[in-house]
Amino acid sequence: MHLPIRVTMLAASAALGLLATPARADDTPTVPEQIVNDMNKVWGSHPGIRANHAKGVVTEGTFTPSPTAKALSKANIFAGGAVPVTIRFSDATGVPTLPDGNAYANPHGMAIKFHLADGSDVDVVTNSLKLFPVATGEEFAALFEAIIASPPDAPHPNKLEQFVGSHPAVIAASKLDTPTSLAREIYNGVDAFIFVDAAGKRQAFRWKIIPAAGTEYLSADDAGKQAPDFLMQEMPARLAKAPVVFSLSAQLAEPGDQTIDPTKPWPAERKVVELGTITITKAAADSAAAEKPLLFLPTNVPDGIEPSDDPIIDTRTQAYAVSFGRRSQ
Ligand code: HEM
Protein backbone atom coordinates (compact mmCIF):
# COMPACT_ATOMS: atom_id res chain seq x y z
CA MET A 1 0.00 0.00 0.00
CA HIS A 2 1.60 2.85 -0.51
CA LEU A 3 0.39 4.63 2.26
CA PRO A 4 1.39 5.68 5.58
CA ILE A 5 -0.28 3.13 7.67
CA ARG A 6 1.39 3.47 10.99
CA VAL A 7 -0.30 5.84 13.37
CA THR A 8 3.13 7.29 14.01
CA MET A 9 3.43 8.19 10.36
CA LEU A 10 1.47 11.29 11.06
CA ALA A 11 4.33 12.76 13.01
CA ALA A 12 6.77 11.62 10.35
CA SER A 13 4.66 13.11 7.60
CA ALA A 14 4.40 16.37 9.46
CA ALA A 15 8.17 16.36 9.89
CA LEU A 16 8.63 15.74 6.19
CA GLY A 17 6.17 18.50 5.40
CA LEU A 18 3.89 16.05 3.65
CA LEU A 19 0.64 17.00 5.29
CA ALA A 20 -1.46 19.83 4.02
CA THR A 21 -5.20 20.46 4.20
CA PRO A 22 -6.20 22.52 1.17
CA ALA A 23 -9.86 22.65 0.20
CA ARG A 24 -11.03 19.94 -2.21
CA ALA A 25 -10.75 21.23 -5.78
CA ASP A 26 -13.58 19.07 -7.05
CA ASP A 27 -16.78 18.62 -5.04
CA THR A 28 -17.89 15.50 -6.88
CA PRO A 29 -14.89 13.31 -7.60
CA THR A 30 -15.22 9.60 -8.14
CA VAL A 31 -13.68 7.46 -5.40
CA PRO A 32 -10.49 6.81 -7.44
CA GLU A 33 -10.21 10.55 -8.23
CA GLN A 34 -10.72 11.34 -4.55
CA ILE A 35 -7.94 8.92 -3.59
CA VAL A 36 -5.52 10.50 -6.08
CA ASN A 37 -6.52 13.98 -4.83
CA ASP A 38 -5.86 12.81 -1.28
CA MET A 39 -2.53 11.23 -2.22
CA ASN A 40 -1.53 14.59 -3.71
CA LYS A 41 -2.57 16.35 -0.48
CA VAL A 42 -0.72 13.95 1.82
CA TRP A 43 2.43 13.56 -0.28
CA GLY A 44 2.39 16.75 -2.34
CA SER A 45 1.63 17.18 -6.01
CA HIS A 46 4.71 16.65 -8.17
CA PRO A 47 4.20 17.43 -11.88
CA GLY A 48 5.03 14.53 -14.16
CA ILE A 49 5.34 12.12 -11.22
CA ARG A 50 3.17 9.16 -10.15
CA ALA A 51 0.67 9.94 -7.32
CA ASN A 52 1.99 6.83 -5.59
CA HIS A 53 5.15 4.76 -6.02
CA ALA A 54 6.73 7.97 -7.29
CA LYS A 55 10.35 6.84 -7.08
CA GLY A 56 11.43 3.86 -9.13
CA VAL A 57 13.92 2.14 -11.38
CA VAL A 58 13.10 0.49 -14.73
CA THR A 59 14.69 -2.80 -15.79
CA GLU A 60 14.36 -5.30 -18.64
CA GLY A 61 14.47 -9.06 -19.02
CA THR A 62 12.45 -12.11 -19.96
CA PHE A 63 9.80 -14.41 -18.49
CA THR A 64 9.95 -18.13 -19.26
CA PRO A 65 6.73 -19.99 -18.34
CA SER A 66 6.56 -23.41 -16.67
CA PRO A 67 4.32 -26.30 -17.83
CA THR A 68 2.37 -25.87 -14.56
CA ALA A 69 1.32 -22.37 -15.65
CA LYS A 70 0.06 -23.59 -19.01
CA ALA A 71 -2.04 -26.27 -17.30
CA LEU A 72 -3.62 -23.73 -14.93
CA SER A 73 -4.39 -21.01 -17.47
CA LYS A 74 -4.80 -20.53 -21.19
CA ALA A 75 -3.22 -17.05 -20.84
CA ASN A 76 -0.95 -16.01 -23.71
CA ILE A 77 1.96 -15.27 -21.34
CA PHE A 78 2.07 -18.97 -20.42
CA ALA A 79 1.43 -20.44 -23.87
CA GLY A 80 4.83 -20.39 -25.54
CA GLY A 81 8.49 -19.64 -24.90
CA ALA A 82 10.25 -16.69 -23.31
CA VAL A 83 8.39 -13.36 -23.29
CA PRO A 84 10.25 -10.01 -23.01
CA VAL A 85 9.33 -8.03 -19.88
CA THR A 86 9.79 -4.48 -18.64
CA ILE A 87 9.83 -4.25 -14.83
CA ARG A 88 9.64 -1.12 -12.68
CA PHE A 89 10.65 -1.45 -9.03
CA SER A 90 9.49 1.35 -6.76
CA ASP A 91 9.28 2.90 -3.31
CA ALA A 92 5.88 3.58 -1.75
CA THR A 93 4.38 7.07 -1.40
CA GLY A 94 4.08 9.90 -3.88
CA VAL A 95 7.24 11.61 -2.61
CA PRO A 96 9.86 11.28 -5.36
CA THR A 97 12.74 12.27 -3.02
CA LEU A 98 11.82 9.93 -0.15
CA PRO A 99 14.99 8.12 1.04
CA ASP A 100 14.82 4.43 0.12
CA GLY A 101 15.53 3.46 3.75
CA ASN A 102 12.62 5.51 5.12
CA ALA A 103 9.98 3.27 6.72
CA TYR A 104 7.34 4.80 4.44
CA ALA A 105 9.22 3.65 1.34
CA ASN A 106 7.73 0.25 2.28
CA PRO A 107 5.98 -1.50 0.65
CA HIS A 108 8.24 -1.63 -2.39
CA GLY A 109 6.58 -2.22 -5.74
CA MET A 110 7.35 -4.59 -8.61
CA ALA A 111 5.27 -3.88 -11.71
CA ILE A 112 5.76 -6.17 -14.72
CA LYS A 113 4.75 -5.57 -18.34
CA PHE A 114 4.90 -8.65 -20.57
CA HIS A 115 5.39 -7.81 -24.27
CA LEU A 116 3.63 -10.38 -26.48
CA ALA A 117 4.69 -11.10 -30.05
CA ASP A 118 1.34 -9.83 -31.41
CA GLY A 119 2.07 -6.35 -30.02
CA SER A 120 -0.29 -6.66 -27.03
CA ASP A 121 0.90 -6.44 -23.44
CA VAL A 122 -0.11 -7.85 -20.07
CA ASP A 123 0.49 -6.30 -16.63
CA VAL A 124 1.13 -7.82 -13.20
CA VAL A 125 1.32 -5.18 -10.46
CA THR A 126 2.61 -6.36 -7.08
CA ASN A 127 4.14 -4.99 -3.92
CA SER A 128 5.68 -6.25 -0.70
CA LEU A 129 2.45 -6.03 1.34
CA LYS A 130 1.20 -9.33 2.73
CA LEU A 131 -2.35 -7.97 3.05
CA PHE A 132 -4.13 -4.74 2.19
CA PRO A 133 -5.10 -2.37 5.02
CA VAL A 134 -8.71 -1.93 3.85
CA ALA A 135 -11.25 -3.92 1.83
CA THR A 136 -12.74 -1.34 -0.55
CA GLY A 137 -11.87 1.83 -2.44
CA GLU A 138 -14.31 3.77 -0.23
CA GLU A 139 -12.42 2.62 2.87
CA PHE A 140 -9.10 3.52 1.27
CA ALA A 141 -10.41 7.03 0.60
CA ALA A 142 -11.67 7.19 4.19
CA LEU A 143 -8.22 6.23 5.46
CA PHE A 144 -6.62 9.09 3.52
CA GLU A 145 -9.35 11.46 4.69
CA ALA A 146 -8.59 10.41 8.27
CA ILE A 147 -4.87 11.11 7.75
CA ILE A 148 -5.66 14.55 6.33
CA ALA A 149 -8.04 15.29 9.22
CA SER A 150 -5.42 14.39 11.84
CA PRO A 151 -2.80 17.12 12.00
CA PRO A 152 -0.27 16.82 14.85
CA ASP A 153 -2.26 19.17 17.10
CA ALA A 154 -5.59 17.29 16.71
CA PRO A 155 -7.01 16.05 20.03
CA HIS A 156 -6.70 12.32 20.74
CA PRO A 157 -8.08 10.00 19.67
CA ASN A 158 -7.75 11.79 16.34
CA LYS A 159 -9.54 10.66 13.16
CA LEU A 160 -6.65 8.43 12.07
CA GLU A 161 -6.43 6.75 15.46
CA GLN A 162 -10.19 6.19 15.36
CA PHE A 163 -9.97 4.73 11.84
CA VAL A 164 -7.12 2.43 12.80
CA GLY A 165 -9.06 1.33 15.91
CA SER A 166 -11.93 0.10 13.76
CA HIS A 167 -9.77 -1.31 10.91
CA PRO A 168 -7.23 -3.72 12.47
CA ALA A 169 -5.74 -4.68 9.09
CA VAL A 170 -4.15 -1.21 8.90
CA ILE A 171 -1.71 -2.13 11.66
CA ALA A 172 -1.28 -5.74 10.47
CA ALA A 173 -0.42 -4.54 6.95
CA SER A 174 2.14 -2.04 8.19
CA LYS A 175 4.56 -4.57 9.65
CA LEU A 176 7.22 -4.34 6.95
CA ASP A 177 11.02 -4.20 6.95
CA THR A 178 13.31 -2.54 4.42
CA PRO A 179 15.06 -5.09 2.16
CA THR A 180 18.83 -4.95 1.58
CA SER A 181 18.09 -4.99 -2.16
CA LEU A 182 15.04 -4.78 -4.42
CA ALA A 183 16.25 -8.20 -5.64
CA ARG A 184 15.86 -9.65 -2.13
CA GLU A 185 12.17 -8.97 -1.45
CA ILE A 186 8.99 -11.02 -1.94
CA TYR A 187 6.32 -9.19 -3.92
CA ASN A 188 2.63 -10.13 -3.58
CA GLY A 189 -0.41 -9.55 -5.74
CA VAL A 190 -2.55 -9.03 -2.59
CA ASP A 191 -5.79 -8.99 -4.63
CA ALA A 192 -7.10 -12.36 -5.84
CA PHE A 193 -7.43 -13.16 -9.56
CA ILE A 194 -8.85 -16.22 -11.35
CA PHE A 195 -7.02 -18.56 -13.71
CA VAL A 196 -9.18 -20.13 -16.44
CA ASP A 197 -7.75 -23.17 -18.24
CA ALA A 198 -8.39 -24.40 -21.79
CA ALA A 199 -11.40 -26.46 -20.59
CA GLY A 200 -12.92 -23.50 -18.72
CA LYS A 201 -11.89 -24.70 -15.22
CA ARG A 202 -11.48 -21.80 -12.79
CA GLN A 203 -8.88 -21.49 -10.01
CA ALA A 204 -8.59 -18.45 -7.72
CA PHE A 205 -5.02 -17.36 -6.97
CA ARG A 206 -2.81 -14.55 -5.73
CA TRP A 207 0.47 -13.61 -7.44
CA LYS A 208 3.61 -14.22 -5.37
CA ILE A 209 7.04 -13.28 -6.74
CA ILE A 210 9.92 -14.95 -4.94
CA PRO A 211 13.57 -13.82 -5.25
CA ALA A 212 16.11 -16.51 -6.23
CA ALA A 213 18.64 -14.71 -4.03
CA GLY A 214 16.36 -15.15 -0.99
CA THR A 215 15.00 -12.39 1.21
CA GLU A 216 17.22 -10.20 3.37
CA TYR A 217 16.16 -7.23 5.50
CA LEU A 218 17.76 -4.37 7.41
CA SER A 219 16.98 -3.36 10.97
CA ALA A 220 15.09 -0.07 11.18
CA ASP A 221 18.27 1.59 12.51
CA ASP A 222 20.41 0.31 9.65
CA ALA A 223 17.76 1.21 7.06
CA GLY A 224 17.82 4.79 8.32
CA LYS A 225 21.59 4.97 7.87
CA GLN A 226 21.60 4.01 4.17
CA ALA A 227 22.27 6.49 1.35
CA PRO A 228 19.02 8.11 0.11
CA ASP A 229 18.98 6.19 -3.19
CA PHE A 230 20.68 2.99 -2.03
CA LEU A 231 18.00 0.62 -3.38
CA MET A 232 17.54 2.43 -6.71
CA GLN A 233 21.32 2.47 -7.27
CA GLU A 234 21.98 -1.08 -6.09
CA MET A 235 19.70 -2.69 -8.70
CA PRO A 236 21.58 -1.37 -11.79
CA ALA A 237 24.91 -2.12 -10.07
CA ARG A 238 23.78 -5.69 -9.33
CA LEU A 239 22.55 -6.14 -12.92
CA ALA A 240 25.88 -4.94 -14.30
CA LYS A 241 27.43 -8.04 -12.67
CA ALA A 242 24.76 -10.75 -13.12
CA PRO A 243 21.08 -11.26 -13.96
CA VAL A 244 18.49 -10.91 -11.17
CA VAL A 245 16.13 -13.89 -11.04
CA PHE A 246 12.65 -14.27 -9.52
CA SER A 247 10.13 -17.10 -9.52
CA LEU A 248 6.75 -15.87 -10.72
CA SER A 249 4.45 -17.95 -8.55
CA ALA A 250 0.83 -18.20 -7.49
CA GLN A 251 -0.75 -19.07 -4.17
CA LEU A 252 -3.78 -21.20 -5.00
CA ALA A 253 -7.09 -20.86 -3.14
CA GLU A 254 -8.92 -23.93 -1.92
CA PRO A 255 -12.67 -24.34 -2.37
CA GLY A 256 -14.43 -21.99 0.04
CA ASP A 257 -11.57 -19.49 0.34
CA GLN A 258 -12.92 -15.96 -0.09
CA THR A 259 -11.55 -13.73 -2.85
CA ILE A 260 -13.43 -10.49 -2.18
CA ASP A 261 -11.38 -9.15 0.75
CA PRO A 262 -7.64 -8.36 0.39
CA THR A 263 -7.33 -7.64 4.14
CA LYS A 264 -7.66 -11.39 4.72
CA PRO A 265 -4.75 -13.48 3.39
CA TRP A 266 -5.37 -17.18 2.83
CA PRO A 267 -3.75 -19.60 5.27
CA ALA A 268 0.02 -19.79 4.78
CA GLU A 269 -0.20 -23.53 4.03
CA ARG A 270 -2.14 -22.92 0.80
CA LYS A 271 -0.11 -24.36 -2.08
CA VAL A 272 2.27 -22.02 -3.96
CA VAL A 273 3.07 -23.15 -7.53
CA GLU A 274 5.79 -21.86 -9.84
CA LEU A 275 4.46 -20.27 -13.02
CA GLY A 276 7.85 -19.54 -14.51
CA THR A 277 11.12 -17.68 -14.17
CA ILE A 278 11.72 -13.95 -14.48
CA THR A 279 15.29 -13.19 -15.50
CA ILE A 280 16.15 -9.50 -15.38
CA THR A 281 19.22 -8.79 -17.48
CA LYS A 282 19.69 -5.02 -17.55
CA ALA A 283 18.62 -1.65 -16.19
CA ALA A 284 17.02 0.80 -18.61
CA ALA A 285 19.69 3.09 -20.04
CA ASP A 286 17.64 6.14 -18.96
CA SER A 287 15.22 5.02 -16.25
CA ALA A 288 13.69 8.49 -15.74
CA ALA A 289 12.76 8.64 -19.43
CA ALA A 290 11.65 5.00 -19.58
CA GLU A 291 9.22 5.25 -16.65
CA LYS A 292 7.21 8.20 -17.98
CA PRO A 293 5.17 6.44 -20.71
CA LEU A 294 4.81 3.26 -18.65
CA LEU A 295 1.33 2.59 -17.28
CA PHE A 296 0.71 -0.68 -15.44
CA LEU A 297 -2.97 -1.58 -14.92
CA PRO A 298 -4.06 -4.46 -12.64
CA THR A 299 -6.94 -5.25 -15.03
CA ASN A 300 -4.69 -5.47 -18.11
CA VAL A 301 -4.82 -9.26 -18.09
CA PRO A 302 -5.40 -11.63 -21.02
CA ASP A 303 -8.03 -14.27 -21.70
CA GLY A 304 -7.27 -16.98 -19.13
CA ILE A 305 -6.74 -14.56 -16.21
CA GLU A 306 -9.68 -12.64 -14.73
CA PRO A 307 -10.07 -10.18 -11.86
CA SER A 308 -11.89 -11.72 -8.87
CA ASP A 309 -14.79 -10.07 -7.07
CA ASP A 310 -12.29 -7.99 -5.01
CA PRO A 311 -13.50 -4.39 -5.58
CA ILE A 312 -10.05 -2.91 -4.95
CA ILE A 313 -8.86 -4.18 -8.34
CA ASP A 314 -11.18 -1.89 -10.29
CA THR A 315 -10.50 1.06 -7.95
CA ARG A 316 -6.80 0.55 -8.62
CA THR A 317 -7.11 0.55 -12.38
CA GLN A 318 -9.23 3.71 -12.32
CA ALA A 319 -6.86 5.48 -9.88
CA TYR A 320 -3.79 4.54 -11.96
CA ALA A 321 -5.49 5.96 -15.05
CA VAL A 322 -6.27 9.21 -13.18
CA SER A 323 -2.67 9.48 -11.99
CA PHE A 324 -1.33 8.69 -15.47
CA GLY A 325 -3.60 11.32 -17.03
CA ARG A 326 -2.36 13.96 -14.62
CA ARG A 327 1.32 13.07 -14.84
CA SER A 328 1.17 13.00 -18.65
CA GLN A 329 -0.09 16.59 -18.95
C1 HEM B 1 -7.36 1.01 -3.67
C2 HEM B 1 -6.10 0.58 -3.69
C3 HEM B 1 -4.99 1.26 -4.44
C4 HEM B 1 -4.95 2.50 -4.99
C5 HEM B 1 -6.03 3.57 -5.01
C6 HEM B 1 -3.65 2.64 -5.61
C7 HEM B 1 -3.22 3.77 -6.27
C8 HEM B 1 -2.05 3.89 -7.01
C9 HEM B 1 -1.71 5.00 -7.88
C10 HEM B 1 -2.55 6.25 -8.07
C11 HEM B 1 -0.52 4.72 -8.45
C12 HEM B 1 0.23 5.57 -9.49
C13 HEM B 1 -0.08 5.00 -10.88
C14 HEM B 1 0.58 5.71 -12.04
O1 HEM B 1 0.70 6.95 -12.05
O2 HEM B 1 0.96 5.02 -13.02
C15 HEM B 1 -0.11 3.43 -7.95
C16 HEM B 1 1.05 2.79 -8.32
C17 HEM B 1 1.37 1.52 -7.92
N1 HEM B 1 0.64 0.66 -7.12
FE1 HEM B 1 -1.14 1.05 -6.28
N2 HEM B 1 -2.94 1.48 -5.44
C18 HEM B 1 -3.72 0.60 -4.72
C19 HEM B 1 -3.39 -0.68 -4.33
C20 HEM B 1 -2.25 -1.34 -4.71
C21 HEM B 1 -1.95 -2.71 -4.42
C22 HEM B 1 -2.86 -3.68 -3.65
C23 HEM B 1 -0.73 -2.98 -4.98
C24 HEM B 1 0.07 -4.25 -5.04
C25 HEM B 1 -0.36 -5.41 -4.65
C26 HEM B 1 -0.25 -1.78 -5.62
C27 HEM B 1 0.94 -1.63 -6.29
C28 HEM B 1 1.33 -0.50 -6.99
C29 HEM B 1 2.59 -0.41 -7.71
C30 HEM B 1 3.66 -1.47 -7.81
C31 HEM B 1 2.61 0.86 -8.29
C32 HEM B 1 3.69 1.44 -9.19
C33 HEM B 1 3.44 1.05 -10.64
C34 HEM B 1 4.54 1.59 -11.53
O3 HEM B 1 5.70 1.24 -11.29
O4 HEM B 1 4.22 2.35 -12.46
N3 HEM B 1 -1.20 -0.81 -5.45
N4 HEM B 1 -1.05 2.94 -7.08
- Count of DSSP H/I helices: 11
Name the helicity range.
Answer: 25-40%
Q: CATH architecture, please?
A: Beta Barrel
Task: Identify the bound ligands.
Answer: protoporphyrin IX containing FE
CATH topology: Catalase HpII,  Chain A, domain 1
Low-confidence stretches: 1-24
* Number of β-strand runs: 10
The SSE order reads: HHEHHEEEHHHEEEHHEEHEH
If you average the pLDDT, what whole number results?
Answer: 93
How big a fraction of the residues is strand?
15-25%
- Any idea of the CATH class? Mainly Beta
Largest sheet: 10 strands, antiparallel
Question: Structural class, from helix and strand content?
Answer: alpha+beta
Please tell me how large the radius of gyration is: 19 Å
The coarse overall form would be globular
Distance between the termini: 25 Å
| Total separate domains | 1
CATH superfamily: Catalase core domain
